[in-house]
Amino acid sequence: MSTQGLDAPSQEAILGYYEGLRPFWHPVLPIDALPPAQPVGVELLGEGVVLVRLNGEVVALQDLCRHFQARLSLGEVVEHEGQQCLMCIYHGWTYDASGQCVKIPQLTPGREIPRDARVPRYQVHERYGLIWVCLAEEPRYEIPDFPEFEDARFHVGPLRAYEPWCASGPRMIMGALDDTHFPWTHEGLLGDREHPDPPDHKVWRDGPYLMSQYTILQPRNVSTADVTAAPDTGDGSDGLERITYTNYVGIPNVIRLVKDGDLSRQYVIWLAVCPHRYNQTSSFWYVARNYDRDPAHDRDYESFEDQVRAQDKRVVESQRPWLLPPFWTKIELPLRPADLPLIEYQKWLEELGVAVGL
């Protein structure tokens, strides 16, 4: 997508955004989407990354051959001296799991492989059904937790991988963290325009997390109650359930929303975003629940979340500027106390060096 035009951030702002996000883990691909012996190219923060499984382990390298900059993701997995390596299909230069070139077919006898014939290797980790990559030498934080993933009391639905949105990563996280848009964007699903008052937010920091908690009334649906059971609102509001949200924002690109309802029902949404570019971001979703744990009902919950995501998508993609404008510009006018979680999220981004700018 072109970065030209009135909506485009400055090149300085784009580079600052990329640099600020480098020291964090980013989910880039479902594990099942990486074939056993075939490389796959992904884009992360404007940079090409090739993923390939060599000798049983996932390896992440810069997706450029050092020879003439061909994409290594077009290459082949070959064996060299008993080890699986990645071969560029342009001239056959072959790289081991460390990114070092170990074979150059055109090399004349007696000449050694150049010392600079290597490509950067990035840190990579497999967790929660996803492949995570960190472009920096040391991640600032560990991959944010998803405790329900291995909790026998919960049923975790299938991983959902959505097509990229034309939006920045923070815009997408803020869309999930924001609750005062529920009555307007998600009327009848997550909010009711007869009850638009903002809740009393509690916002605090806990290590690598920004926490927020509040209680609201929401329409009765699969995310608030076991719809196979008899209605039990408990608050005198016809068709509405009293729900307490506890949000765990793993700075800067993961949010876990825990919805507590009546009868100890918990519905958990876990969202992680992958910032391909400043204006193109993919998202990966899980839904976990400690009620109605029949996998045959998963599609009901997926359909509900798909409807919510579709309503969010058109709004989030419309937001300008692409990157969050600094508070001092007053381009955006967040209001206390209604927007307190969003204000604190942006303040933390600035403290972490994740650039906001025009």
Number of helices: 5
Overall geometry: globular
Cα Rg: 23 Å
Q: Determine the N-to-C terminus distance.
A: 17 Å
Instruction: Show unreliable segments.
Output: 1-5
- Give the proportion of residues in helices: 10-25%
Which structural class do the helices and strands define?
Answer: alpha+beta
The overall average pLDDT, rounded, is: 93
Count of individual beta strands: 18
Main sheet, how many strands, which sense, barrel?
Answer: 8 strands, antiparallel
Q: What fraction of the residues are assigned to beta strands by DSSP?
A: 25-35%
Order of helices and strands: HEEEEEEEEEEEEHHEEEEEEHH
Main attributes?
single chain, about 350 residues, alpha+beta, eight-stranded antiparallel beta sheet, six-stranded antiparallel beta sheet, 18 strands, disordered N terminus
